[in-house]
């Protein structure tokens, strides 16, 4: 997955226009990244990428780039 | 109007898959408005059929202290109209089954033809939010016959 694909995935997951999503975009600036959004993100990481996180690890994700770092560290993003 | 959109569970592997049915009667209240002269089952009710079936499959495991609740419709397609006096066969396959969330791929067949499908996302609401005497009669009826 490249950067554009990753941005599109995040935008689709949180129902935001892709132009609103940048690596430095904060969780607090994405309305749908709420408690349900955390579970939806958790499920998508699990189902789409085989990455299973704990609640504590999910709470450490505070901006879009944190998700990208996670994907990179798991070899899912170039 | 009751909000029960699964009449009977036909077969089930708890936590994995379910096949259930809903008889569509010409007397169903929503046909009065949806639509006069062209009665068809609303898409939202087809989603509800699939969600209730998948939810029962998850609840049947009885491994959580929470009830499965539809939280997100990841995708949905409606290919054919469903009219009155038909039997909808609802199938759900649980694709992800975790402590806090689950996903399911579902479809509905009428007269051996796939008419709609959906991918649904569930979370779990603690049982103490529900009435203490709340019982899923359709699920318990199946489980009593298929212990």
Describe the 3D structure.
The complex is a heterodimer of chains A (78) and B (147). Chain A contains four helices and no strands. Chain A has helices at 3-13, 35-49, 55-59, 64-73. Chain A is globular, with a radius of gyration of 11 Å. Chain B is an alpha+beta fold. Chain B has helices at residues 43-59, 137-145; strands at 8-13, 17-24, 66-78, 86-97, 101-110, 113-126. Chain B starts with 7 loop residues before the first strand and ends with a helix. The A-B interface holds A 36, 39-40, 42-43, 46-47 and B 71-72, 95-96, 98, 100-101, 103, 121, 123.
The residue fraction in helices of chain B comes out at: 10-25%
Rg over CA atoms of chain B: 15 Å
Main β sheet profile of chain A: none
Give the terminus-to-terminus CA distance of chain A. Answer: 6 Å
Cα gyration radius of chain A (Å): 11 Å
Share of β-strand residues of chain A? under 5%
Shape of chain A: globular
Give the averaged pLDDT of chain B, no decimals: 96
Weakly predicted, low-confidence segments of chain B: none
Which oligomeric state applies?
A: heterodimer
Poorly predicted runs of chain A: none
Q: How many E-type strands of chain B?
A: 6
Alpha plus pi helix count of chain B: 2
